[in-house]
Task: structure prediction
Amino acid sequence: AIGLAAYTYISMVPMLQAPLMKALYSRRELGIRMEPVPEEEIGRAAVMAFPLLLVVVVGVLAPKAVPLIGMLALGNFLRESGVTEIVERLAKTSSTVLADVVTLLLGLTVGSTLSADVIGSSPDMMLKVAAVFALGIVAFLGDLFFGIVAGKVVAAATHGAINPAIGASANSAFPVSARVVQRVVSEAAPGNIVLMEAVTTNLAGQLTSPIFAGVIMTLLSSLGV
Result:
C-alpha cells in the first residue's frame, strides 16, 4: 500500500505544486531576479569532511536513517575523492549506469508486485492505499505551504534579494520540484532563471527528509510503536 501510494503521489508533484505556487505567490514575487553568487573555492578538506560528518551526525540523531543517508554520503565521497583510477571509475559508474539500473529495477520491482492478485489479496487493500495516498498528499501540501512561507520570510529578511519561489522546492521530490519552480517563474517572468538556487533548496529538502523520517522512526521505536 505504501509503495503504490508513494509512487502515485510523486507523479502528482507538478499537479500539486504549480497551482499552489500560483495561488500564494504574486507575479512581483516570482519576477524577483537574484544577483549571481560569486564562485568560492571550497577546500578539499571541507569537501571530503562533509559526507563523513553527515553520517556521524545522522547516526547520533537518527540511527534508523543511516542506511539511506549513508548511501548518499558514499556516493558524494566517491565522487569527490578522486584518489585513484578505480575510485574515479566507481564514482562514474555509480552516478550513471548504476543509478539508471537501480532506478529501472526499483520501478520494475514495485510494478511487478502490484498485480491484481496482490491488490485483491486483502479486501481493504485499496482502502489502505487511499488512506496512505491521502496522508501523502496532505503531508506534501503542508511541506509546500511551509516552504513557500519560509521563502517569503527569507525574501523579506533580505529585502528582496532572494526570490521566495525557491522555498517551494524545499522537499524531497528531487529534481522535479526544482523544475516546477523554474517553469512557474518562467511563466510569470520570462528570462528569470532560478533553477540552480531551486535545485540547491531541493537538494537540502532531499537530505533533511530521510533525517526527519529517521527521527520520527526512532521516537516511535522508543515508545514501543
